[in-house]
Amino acid sequence: MTAQHPEEEYAVWTIPGTSFKVSYWLSLFHEIDFQVNEGYRRIPHGGVEIGGLLFGHAEENLVRIEAFRVIECEHSRGPSFVLSDRDLSALRTQLSSAGSDAELRGLDLLGWFVAHTRSELQVNERESGLFDELFPETGKLMILIKPERFQPTRFAFLIRGADGKLAGTAPENAIILPLPGRAERAGSGPVASIPAPAAKSPETTASREPLEAPREEHA
User: Fold this and answer.
1) pLDDT tens per residue across span 110-123
2) CB-count burial class (<10 Å; 0-12, 13-18, 19+) for 62
3) What is the pTM of this model?
4) 105-132 CB burial, b ≥16 within 10 A, e <16
């Protein structure tokens, strides 16, 4: 599998419980991270969720992610990533016409990513059903992405196994992206992804917020 960029510009992650590896161009994933967080900041209390198609190269136990295209969502049903009938029609056209995109020429459709700004890193029933319809083949990839206030964005990689099920669904298997430039400093090969720290519960976060200083009373 020939990389489109120097090997040191990639990070790699082995999905726990499998021999399947995901290699991804770091600059690309930092752009995805930026766009997910742009949506997260658009409105209070969870932001607007986005999704996108992933393209690259696939082998038996390895995919290399080289490009993405945003999936248009009019958010007619609210800020969550819920595709309307018109969105789904546009998505099917996008899938069928991807081969005419000169920048995607020679790349395989690998799967999709979905931002989870309003829920945990667990596939919901709606996403599962649509993923089964659009990406039924073994080896197709789903990435759930959760931005966090004051913490790095978490990414959860899921892969469809030969049994048709998605492997790697546990939120504790999430990773965070290596910092830009870290791979270049590490040497000539791809850098390992970083397991994400345990997510803090709202109660824990609240308990660590500084208390307001008492106000002085004046006679």
Assistant:
1) 999 999 998 889 99
2) middle
3) 0.86
4) eebbbbbbbbbbbbeebebeeebeebbe
